[in-house]
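Possible regression after last week's pipeline update?

I re-ran a chain I had predicted before the update to compare outputs. Posting the input and the new output here so someone can diff against the archived version. Not blocking, just want to make sure nothing changed silently.
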Amino acid sequence: MEKVEVTLEMAAVYKGVPVGPAIINYTHPQDKWDSFKGVGVFNNEGILSDTSFACITANGIGFS
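New output (post-update):
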């Protein structure tokens, strides 16, 4: 699994980790078409794995 660094535009934080719904923004360093903005749900451990996520890429394609 590839890990990327994202910007949390809005998120609740508990004990230093994001929890619950969050607005997530990612800007790819080389290819702007791989960038996205979306909404995800962090679990109680601050991880997006196996939780809901939906986004729109820089070229307007939506994913969930």
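Follow-up from reviewer: compared with the archived run. The chain has a mean pLDDT of 91. Marking as no regression found.
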